[in-house]
């Protein structure tokens, strides 16, 4: 269980809301959606972590309340905002467990934007304020959802070029084309675990071990789902200076005489490394290996660099032409591009290879900050909004419908318009659709209760998540 104090894990303004809701409020029902953004669909993933780590069990205690009271009096500088009795009620009546119900789409489900993904409501009328108090923490599910969505969208691009240019028996397969190099660029160890595991929903290549630990700990993965290989960095290859680069390369090959190994080769001159060292001096040793050498350029324009590198390697090592008419290096040699890789650069790289008659199966990718860090809540426009309330026993459909000015000064309804009433997610004729809870009773609600009154009521395995998100 986390050491964090849940009583303090909300935006400061939330502590005044118990007073600001209209008197007589008994029930608040809110929903989460991706309102649009970069991609047309979103992989729902990561909620289970927040439920297990932060919300399940006894989360409010007198000790935590005492701690929170000190901080919140400092934050507000007054005594009429934070109301200790609200939390004492939950401690006394519910044993410190949260009287809320959370429903969500099964994890790994790929849902078109502008559909309900999750709902939350209070189960005790005295705790109407608690529903949206939890928004601050639960909204952070945007991060694993967005990384999982980004990774899956890249897999679509890779699959397209594999379908066009790669042989059916391509070495390693598509699951190892995109490798997560993002641990050092993540904002925290927790982010690396959350985002790293989200990438592993679609791919199996990763140097972010935290992602595998996360999947094992919170999604019962039986073994590490993220796999890696031995590889050099520049500190290794530059140890003997430029004159000693060839000796280092020999040492790398001798140290791992079998299996896959990667070697960064741009410390001085990537083209000399490919032509004179790998392709001449070490050529026979490489071709006689039971395994694959993966050569890594790490600077320069990715497209121009890769085209020249492949031209050199194919001249030196030879190539075959696969059944789709594209050139393939011998299985002992491949290339990994880990510099300048992003969702926007990947299609151009594969397209350039295709135009040059080079199969996509020759190349794998490493992606760091652009995978785990160059995303935010607005990448997929995540929002959690109240859609239904009960005041003095009367149900009210709640909705925001902002009017805004466009660039031409014309009034229009904002894309931030929210949904009204209790909701369900259904599938009709194979398409997802959000409708009112009482509409179309013949269609099953795909939202399942995953948390109720302090207990996680439904959990997903990592394998189930992967299967649900599979292309």
Q: What would you note in describing this structure?
A:
This protein has 471 residues and is of the alpha/beta class. The protein has 2 domains: 6-145 and 379-469, nicotinate phosphoribosyltransferase (Alpha-Beta Barrel), CATH 3.20.140; 157-373, TIM Barrel. It is 35% helix and 20% strand. The protein has helices at residues 17-20, 47-55, 62-76, 84-94, 130-133, 135-138, 142-165, 189-199, 209-219, 234-237, 245-255, 270-281, 283-287, 302-317, 346-355, 369-372, 462-469, and strands at 25-34, 41-43, 100-104, 110-112, 116-122, 178-180, 205-206, 261-264, 293-296, 320-321, 327-328, 333-337, 363-367, 382-391, 394-397, 403-405, 411-413, 423-428, 431-436, 448-452, 455-456. A hairpin with a 2-residue loop joins strand 18 (423-428) and strand 19 (431-436). The longest helix has 24 residues, at 142-165. It is elongated. 41% of the residues are buried. The model has no long low-confidence stretch (mean pLDDT 97).
């Amino acid at each position: 269980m986390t050491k964090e104090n849940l009583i303090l894990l909300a935006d400061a303004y939330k502590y005044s809301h118990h007073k600001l809701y209209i008197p007589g409020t008994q029930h608040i029902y809110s929903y989460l959606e991706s309102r649009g953004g970069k991609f047309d669909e979103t992989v729902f993933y990561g909620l289970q972590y927040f439920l297990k780590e932060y919300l399940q069990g006894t989360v409010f205690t007198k000790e935590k309340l005492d701690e929170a009271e000190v901080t919140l009096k400092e934050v507000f500088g007054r005594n009429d905002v934070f109301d200790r009795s609200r939390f004492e009620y939950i401690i006394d009546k519910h044993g410190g467990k949260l009287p809320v119900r959370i429903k969500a789409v099964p994890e790994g489900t790929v849902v078109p934007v502008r559909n309900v993904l999750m709902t939350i409501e209070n189960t005790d009328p005295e705790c109407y304020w608690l529903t949206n108090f939890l928004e601050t923490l639960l909204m952070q599910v945007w991060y694993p959802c967005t990384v999982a969505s980004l990774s899956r969208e890249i897999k679509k691009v890779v699959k397209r070029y594999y379908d066009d240019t790669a042989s059916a028996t391509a070495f390693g397969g598509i699951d190892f084309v995109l490798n997560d190099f993002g641990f050092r660029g993540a904002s925290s160890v927790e982010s690396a675990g959350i985002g790293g595991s989200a990438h592993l929903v679609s791919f199996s290549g990763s140097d972010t071990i935290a992602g595998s630990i996360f999947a094992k700990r919170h999604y019962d993965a039986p073994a590490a789902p993220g796999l890696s290989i031995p590889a050099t960095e520049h500190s290794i290859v530059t140890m003997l200076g430029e004159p000693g680069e060839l000796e280092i390369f020999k040492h790398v090959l001798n140290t791992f005489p079998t299996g896959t190994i990667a070697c960064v080769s741009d410390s001085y001159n990537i083209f000399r490394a490919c032509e004179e060292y790998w392709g001449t001096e070490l050529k026979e040793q490489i071709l006689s290996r039971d395994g694959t050498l993966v050569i890594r350029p790490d600077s320069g324009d990715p497209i121009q660099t890769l085209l020249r590198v492949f031209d050199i390697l194919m001249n030196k090592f030879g190539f075959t032409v696969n059944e789709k008419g594209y050139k393939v290096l011998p299985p002992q040699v491949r290339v990994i591009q880990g510099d300048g890789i992003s969702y926007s650069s990947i299609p151009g790289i594969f397209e350039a290879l295709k135009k040059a008659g080079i199969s996509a199966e020759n190349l794998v990718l490493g992606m760091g900050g652009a995978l785990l860090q160059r995303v935010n809540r607005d990448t997929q426009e995540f929002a959690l909004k109240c859609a239904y309330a009960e005041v003095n026993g009367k149900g009210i459909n709640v909705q925001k419908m902002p009017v805004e000015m466009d660039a031409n000064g014309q009034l229009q309804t904002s894309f931030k318009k929210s949904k009204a009433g209790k909701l369900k997610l259904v599938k009709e004729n194979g398409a997802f659709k959000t409708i009112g809870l009482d509409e179309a009773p013949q269609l099953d609600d795909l939202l399942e209760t995953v948390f109720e009154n302090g207990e996680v009521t439904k959990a997903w395995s990592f394998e189930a998540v992967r299967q649900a998100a599979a292309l």
